[in-house]
């Protein structure tokens, strides 16, 4: 599961101070503090910041990368950019907006928890969400921010 999601080439004008693209020890510790927190809300977009790096935006059937926000019950908000979704470590990324949406809805409905914060062989952030002891979804992220949420998004 090696993927930089193309975000290592993003231009400086697209980045904000809080946008993280490297899994440093400090960034790892911040994220790992939320291990064990349950998903209580989720929003996603049908496009990604990573699309700006492509000559042509992928069709809904070709889409493999999206942006999403995950709200955890410890009041952590994970804003994830250039995210690829995997069912298992050895699987290919999910492809197609419909498959991505289904996986995210399943994640939210299953009351999954953030089971592990990891790093891919390529150095990208990987978030492993589990239900019970079973991995439900692995999200490999090109860039992210971590903050606190005050209010959950409306359905």
Quick take:
The chain is built from 2 helices and 7 strands. The protein has helices at residues 25-32, 97-109, and strands at 39-44, 66-72, 76-86, 113-119, 125-131, 134-141, 143-148. Strands 1, 2, 3, 4, 5, 6 and 7 form a 7-stranded antiparallel beta sheet that branches.
Question: What is the secondary structure topology, with strand pairs?
Answer:
Layout (H helix, E strand, L loop, with lengths): L24 H8 L6 E6 L21 E7 L3 E11 L10 H13 L3 E7 L5 E7 L2 E8 L1 E6 L7
Antiparallel strand pairs: 1-2, 2-3, 3-6, 3-7, 4-5, 5-6
One letter per element, helices H and strands E, the order comes to HEEEHEEEE
Low-confidence stretches: 1-16
- The radius of gyration over CA amounts to 14 Å
Q: Per the principal axes of the C-alpha atoms, what is the gross shape? A: globular
Helical run tally: 2
Percentage of residues in helical conformation: 10-25%
Number of domains: 1
How much of the polypeptide forms β-strand, as a percent range? 25-35%
Which structural category do the helix and sheet elements fall into? alpha+beta
Characterize the quaternary organization of these chains: single chain
Number of strands: 7
Instruction: Output mean pLDDT.
Output: 88
* Terminal CA distance: 32 Å
Sheet with the most strands?
7 strands, antiparallel
């Amino acid at each position: 599961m090696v993927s930089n999601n193309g975000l290592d080439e993003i231009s400086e004008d697209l980045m904000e101070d809080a946008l993280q693209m490297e899994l440093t020890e400090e960034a790892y510790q911040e994220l790992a503090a939320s291990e064990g927190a349950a998903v209580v809300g989720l929003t996603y977009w049908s496009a990604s910041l990573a699309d700006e790096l492509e000559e042509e935006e992928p069709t809904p059937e070709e889409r493999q990368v999206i942006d999403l926000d995950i709200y955890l019950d410890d009041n952590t908000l994970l804003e994830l950019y250039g995210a690829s979704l995997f069912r298992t470590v050895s699987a290919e990324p999910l492809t197609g907006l419909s498959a991505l949406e289904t996986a995210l809805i399943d994640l939210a409905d299953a009351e999954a928890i953030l089971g592990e914060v990891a790093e891919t062989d390529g150095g990208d952030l990987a978030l492993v969400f589990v239900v019970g002891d079973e991995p439900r979804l692995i999200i490999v992220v090109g860039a992210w921010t971590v903050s606190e949420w005050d209010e959950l998004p409306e359905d």
